[in-house]
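Design a sequence for this backbone.
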C-alpha cells in the first residue's frame, strides 16, 4: 500500500461529517462483502482465482458495525457489492440489520450490485429489508455470448432472477460492460429490451483493474464510439438526470428510456466524487483508481466503542486524492492497478 498524502489542507468536518481536502462531502459508501463470485467474467477475474481465507473477512456483525459507523458520519447511500454479494453466507442477516437505518431515517438508500444469479432466492427478502433498487450486471442477451463472457454463468438463471426482482417490486438498472468484439453488437438490442421492461441501462467502459490472464487493449471499447453508433440509429437527448453515481445520462427519444455512460478512461468523473469503498477485509479505498488505502479492521476490532474506527476514518478521508489516473498500458499487459474490481466492488 502506498501512502499518498494530498496536497490541499483538509477542511474541518462539521458534526462528524466526512469532507475531503477538496471540499467533497462523502455520503456514499460501497462495501464489498466477499471477494468470491460464482461467475468468472473475462474482464474482471482470471479463471483460477485465489480467494482470501474466510478468516480474513470481516464477520457480518463487523460489517454491520462498520457500515453503521459510516452512517453515523454522514453516509446516506449504502451499496452492498462484491465479489457476488448474494453468495456470502447468511447475507440477508446484514441487509435486515442495516434496514434499521432506513427505518429511523439515517439512511436514504440501501442497495446492491449483483450478477443476478441468486436473485430468485433473495428478491423478496431484499424488498422486505427495504431495498428498492438493484443494479444487475448483464452484458448480453445471447446465451452463448453470456457463457463466453462469464465463463460459468447461466443466462436463464439470471433472467429468472430479474423476473423475481421485478415481481418483488424492485427497480432494476442493468449495467453492461462494453467489450470490443464480444458484445459490441448487442448494445442496441440490450437498450431496447431494457427500455421495453422499464429499466435504465448503464454502459461501462472496461477499467484496467487486476490481472485477468489476457490483454485488456483487446477488450477496450471507448463509449464515445458506442455513442456515435447509437446516434446513427437513435436520437439521444442529454438530460440532467443523476443517480449520485458517475454515469452521465441521455434519454432515447424512440424508446423513452434512459441510457447512462460511465467512461472512466475517456471522461474524468472525479470532480463530483462523493464515495469511498471498503473491501471485505475492512480496507478503505478512498479512490477506485488509486492504491492508497487505510486499514479499518484493526481499529474496528481494537475497541467496541467505535472511537478508534471513527478516528481512522477521519484520518483516511483527509487524504482522499483528487482523482484517479487510469490508463490501459498499450505496451504491456499490466493492469493500472493490481487489485481486481471484485475486491473493491463495482
Ligand atoms: N458480482 C456483482 C456484479 O456482477 O454486479 C458485483 C461486483 S462486480 C465486480 C460489479 C461491476 O463491476 C459489474 O457490473 C462488473 O461488470 C463490473 N466490472 C468488473 N470488472 C470490471 C472492469 N475491469 N472494468 C469495468 N467494469 C468491471
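Sequence:
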Amino acid at each position: 500500500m502506498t501512502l499518498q498524502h494530498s496536497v490541499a489542507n483538509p477542511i474541518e468536518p462539521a458534526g462528524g461529517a466526512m469532507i475531503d481536502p477538496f471540499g467533497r462531502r462523502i455520503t456514499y459508501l460501497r462495501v464489498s462483502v466477499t471477494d468470491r463470485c460464482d461467475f468468472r467474467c473475462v474482464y474482471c477475474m482470471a479463471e483460477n482465482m485465489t480467494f482470501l481465507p474466510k478468516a480474513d473477512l470481516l464477520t457480518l456483525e463487523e460489517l454491520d458495525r462498520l457500515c453503521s459507523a459510516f452512517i453515523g458520519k454522514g453516509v446516506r447511500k449504502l451499496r452492498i457489492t462484491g465479489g457476488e454479494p448474494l453468495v456470502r453466507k447468511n447475507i440477508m442477516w446484514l441487509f435486515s440489520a442495516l434496514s434499521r437505518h432506513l427505518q429511523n431515517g439515517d439512511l436514504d438508500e440501501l442497495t446492491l450490485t449483483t450478477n443476478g444469479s441468486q436473485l430468485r432466492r433473495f428478491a423478496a427478502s431484499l424488498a422486505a429489508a427495504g431495498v428498492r433498487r438493484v443494479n444487475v450486471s448483464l452484458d448480453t442477451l445471447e446465451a452463448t455470448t453470456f457463457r463466453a463472457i462469464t465463463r460459468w454463468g447461466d443466462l436463464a438463471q439470471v433472467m429468472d432472477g430479474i423476473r423475481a426482482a421485478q415481481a418483488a417490486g424492485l427497480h432494476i438498472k442493468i449495467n453492461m460492460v462494453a467489450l470490443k468484439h464480444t458484445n459490441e453488437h448487442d448494445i442496441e438490442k440490450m437498450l431496447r429490451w431494457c427500455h421495453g421492461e422499464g429499466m435504465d441501462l448503464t454502459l461501462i467502459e472496461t477499467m484496467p483493474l487486476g490481472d485477468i490472464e489476457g490483454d485488456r487493449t483487446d477488450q477496450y471499447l471507448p463509449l464515445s464510439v458506442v455513442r456515435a453508433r447509437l446516434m446513427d440509429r437513435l436520437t439521444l437527448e442529454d438530460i440532467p438526470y443523476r443517480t449520485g453515481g458517475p454515469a452521465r445520462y441521455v434519454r432515447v427519444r424512440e424508446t423513452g428510456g434512459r441510457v447512462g455512460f460511465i467512461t472512466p478512461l475517456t471522461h474524468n468523473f472525479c470532480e463530483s466524487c462523493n464515495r469511498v469503498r471498503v473491501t471485505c477485509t475492512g480496507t478503505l479505498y478512498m479512490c477506485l483508481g488509486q492504491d492508497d488505502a487505510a486499514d479499518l479492521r484493526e481499529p474496528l476490532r481494537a475497541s467496541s466503542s467505535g472511537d478508534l474506527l471513527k478516528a481512522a476514518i477521519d484520518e483516511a478521508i483527509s487524504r482522499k486524492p483528487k482523482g484517479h489516473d487510469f490508463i490501459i498500458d498499450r505496451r504491456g499487459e499490466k493492469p493500472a492497478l493490481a487489485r481486481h474490481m471484485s475486491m473493491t466492488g463495482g
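The chain has ten helices and twelve strands.
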